[in-house]
Each structure stands twice: as C-alpha cells, then as structure tokens.
Design brief:
Its EC number is 3.1.3.56. The chain is an alpha+beta fold. Helices cover about 15% and strands about 30% of the residues. It has helices at about 25-40, 60, 65-75, 190-195, 200-215, 235-245, 285-290, 350-355; strands at about 5-15, 45-50, 85-90, 105-110, 115-120, 125, 130-135, 145-150, 165-170, 175-180, 225-230, 250-255, 260-265, 275-280, 280-285, 315, 345-350, 365-370, 380-390, 400-410, 415-425, 430-435. Strands 5, 6, 8, 9, 10, 11, 16 and 17 form an eight-stranded mixed beta sheet that branches. A hairpin with a 4-residue loop joins strand 5 and strand 6. The model is unreliable at about 395-435 (pLDDT under 50).
C-alpha cells in the first residue's frame, strides 16, 4: 500500500482593489487588516492573492500607493513565516497595448519543503526561493504569462485593460496553474436589460472561451488550473427586474431636451416608486433588505453566466451574497450601492482536473466573501480555502489525456535528469535537475 499523501492547505483570493486606491489613507490599512485576519483564521500554508485594477481607475495618480500596499502585506506579523514570496504587478500604464492592471501575489509558508515555479521561457520549473517583487513593466519576467484580450473583443473602446496573468507551480509534487482574469463589465443597465445573454455577457463569454481555448492548446503543456478573478458575471437583469416589479406600473422618464430615456420607474397602486433603473442606477425602495437578506435566495437563480462553461469549469456551491457593488465609504461597508443589480462578479473557478487535486473532505473547503461587515471597496474579495494533495494531478484522468504521468530521460554526458509531462498532443519538459 502507498503512503498517505501529504496535504497542503491553500488560500486562493480574488480582489478587485481599484477603489481602495481612490481613498488610500484609510482604505489600504482597513483592507490589509481584514485580509490578514482572514489568513490568521484560516491558517493556510500557500496563499495566492489575485488583484484586478491595481492602482485604481486613476492609476496615473494612485499607482504610487501600490508599493505601500505590498509592503503592508510583506511586513506583517501574520505573514512572517511565509519565507518565499512572488509578486507580479503590471503597472506600466504608458503601454496601452500591454497594460492589464493585474497583480498576482503569492506567499509560501516555511513548512512547505518542495516548491518550484515555472519558467515560461526555458519551459521548465525552477526553484522558488527568497522574495521577489516584479513591478512596473513586467513584460520580460519569465515566470509569468500575461496577455490582453484581442482588440476586436472591445471594438467600441479605444483600449481595454482586460486580460489574464498566469503562473504555474509545483507544490510538494503537485503541478497546477493559477490564473488571474478580468473580464468586461456592464456599461449600461438599459443595454443589459435588452436580452439574455446581453451584449456584455456575450463579450465576456467570447473572451473566456478564447482564454480556455488558449489553455486547451497550451504550448507549455496542459496542467490543472484554478481560474480566479473578476469575471464581471451579472445576473439576468431583465428577469430580475420582472421578478421585482411583478404587478407594478412602468413609468418612462425622458430627458426634456432630446426626449432620450433617462430612467424607468416602477410604481405601485399608490404611485410610490418601488424600483428605479437608469443607465447607472439600480435603486429599490427597500434596497438593502432586498439584496442583503440571506433568506432571499431568488437572485441566485438568475446567476446564469457560469453555466455556459460547465464542460470545462466547476465551482463550489455559492452560498454567500453577491460580491458587487458595495458602498465605498468606510461607514457603509456592509451596504450595496444603488448603481447596479448586485451580482457575483468575483469567483474562484476550477478546472475538472484541478478539482481532483483537492482533498475530498468537505470540511476542508470554505468558499466565501471576505470582510462582510468591513469596507473593502466596491468589490468584496472572494476566497476559496481548500486542501490539496501532494504528488497528485499528473496522472489524473482528465481532458489532458495523459499517456503516462511522467517520463524520465537521463543525459549521462551532462549528468542531467529531465522529467517530461506527457500529453498526447504536446510533451513538455517540466523539470530539470543537474547533479553536482
């Protein structure tokens, strides 16, 4: 009988941090304290923090605060035993064709003995030691892959920051990819209401399909992957409005100058306005109770965007409230803004191969919001705490169709051992070890 695999508790966090850089004086401290409190509570040994909108929307002015953000984390007492750190911050906003404003931050606990990170240039793993921060222009950094979505995905925009940033890891013999992604948002509630899937949903779907195909045809060899970021998934807005306004009268409010529709108001028999929908307004007369009440589960039934990807991706049950849009002022951290229909924009999605890496005991899995009662910006971070198995994954029966878990070739002339990840389509070297 084989020995029981070692288990490694991991914490995967996705956080759109744009709004915390708009008001950095209080928000950076508040945000990091909540993040570190979660780390202390969950006690992971490997942490992956994927951030979107690093530096905020006015990044020319606020990018300088990103260094403070990273220092608060790295110098914290809670992370003092994490002796290996990798930070990737795409901050070069002067390069419109490359800039994504994504940031991937990884912390490895001293108790993890064997950890390696993939070199996308040499096509092999290399030892992960010490602490490295890659910021500014990171195009030449070889331990990450970064891409923006093609220009034709956003033809009506001059350019877009949307894209993905990927790293590949070997933790105690288990190989997997960690991918940060940021998809397109809904610009207008009116357009989002026209149909489902909306034009915004179709753009997100196209970009995500493009990304998944990229990993399916992976020149670096296929690996199980965790895909977590701001997907901007929204509810079926028209269906939600119909649910909320059943039996109400619709009033069209138009601009007197050009007769353009500015608002839709839904009123009861007493002419009281129950719901108002504008281009950037979504305001219910009982807004917080309607969307924050945990007993109100109807909204989740309109969360449909993930279903288009079930052949490739899975997700643990979503039992938490929508992660967006929360108030950005410190005193209202548990309230929703009245701008958009609340939605589960921020997700941790898992390839079917990656799901096989997670220990089956459900008590080890926590999928939740961070900072429910704390102001974390307009997006609440979403996290997955799970336990992965060591020496797992390479031989898993999944869509990679592995012919064998590994193949070793000894080059006696250089005393070098090469290990290959064997895929029918694309055998790729994953580790090189030279004997001294």
């Amino acid at each position: 009988m084989g020995s029981t695999p070692k288990t490694i508790p991991i914490l995967l966090v996705t956080a759109n941090v744009g709004s915390i850089f708009e008001d950095p004086e209080p928000m950076l401290k508040i945000w990091t304290e909540e993040f570190l409190a979660t780390v202390s509570k969950l006690n992971p040994k490997f942490i992956a923090l994927h951030c979107q909108e690093v530096g905020g929307k006015n990044y020319e002015n606020s990018m300088r605060h990103v260094e403070d953000f990273v220092n608060l984390l790295m110098q914290s007492n809670e992370l003092r035993l994490f002796d290996r750190v990798r930070v990737y911050l795409d901050e070069d906003y002067s390069s419109a064709e490359n800039f994504t404003a994504l940031g991937n931050v990884y912390f490895v606990h001293e108790s993890i003995e064997n950890v390696m990170i993939w070199n996308f240039k040499e096509l092999e793993f290399e030892a992960c030691s010490g602490k490295e921060i890659h910021s500014g222009n990171i195009e030449s950094v070889v331990t990450k892959e970064k891409a923006k979505f093609p220009q034709d995905f956003f033809p009506k925009c001059k350019w877009s920051r949307k894209g993905f940033l990927r790293t590949r890891w070997s933790i105690e013999g288990t190989v997997f990819d960690l991918i940060n992604i940021h998809l397109f948002h809904d610009a207008s509630n009116f357009i989002a209401m026209e149909e489902f899937p909306s034009v915004y949903c179709k753009n997100r779907r196209r970009a995500l399909e493009h990304t998944l195909q990229r990993f399916h045809d992976d020149e670096y060899g296929k690996a199980p992957y965790f895909l977590f970021g701001d997907f901007n998934f929204r509810t079926d807005t028209d269906a939600v409005v119909k649910k909320l306004t059943d039996g109400l009268r619709t009033v069209h409010v138009q601009n007197n100058k050009n007769n353009e529709l500015t608002k839709l108001q839904y009123t009861n028999e007493e002419s009281e306005v129950i719901l108002t929908v504008g281009k950037k307004e979504f305001n219910h007369s009982d807004h917080q109770n309607i969307f924050l009440n945990p007993s109100v589960t109807y909204l989740k039934s309109f969360d449909k965007e993930m279903s288009a990807f079930e052949d490739n991706l899975t997700e643990y049950p979503v039992t938490f409230q929508p992660s967006y849009p929360f108030e950005e002022s410190v005193g209202k951290g548990s309230c929703y803004m009245q701008t958009r229909c609340p939605a589960w924009c921020d997700r941790v999605l898992i390839s079917h191969a990656a799901k096989a890496l997670i220990a089956e005991e459900t008590d080890n899995v926590i999928y939740d919001l961070m900072g429910r009662n704390t102001c974390m910006g307009d997006h609440k971070p979403v996290y997955l705490r799970a336990t992965i198995l060591s020496n797992s994954g390479l031989s898993a029966k999944d869509d990679r169709k592995l012919t064998s878990p590994v193949n070793e070739i000894i080059d006696s002339s250089t005393v070098t051992r090469y290990i290959y990840l064997n895929s029918i389509d694309n055998p790729v070297k994953i580790f090189r070890e030279t004997t001294v």
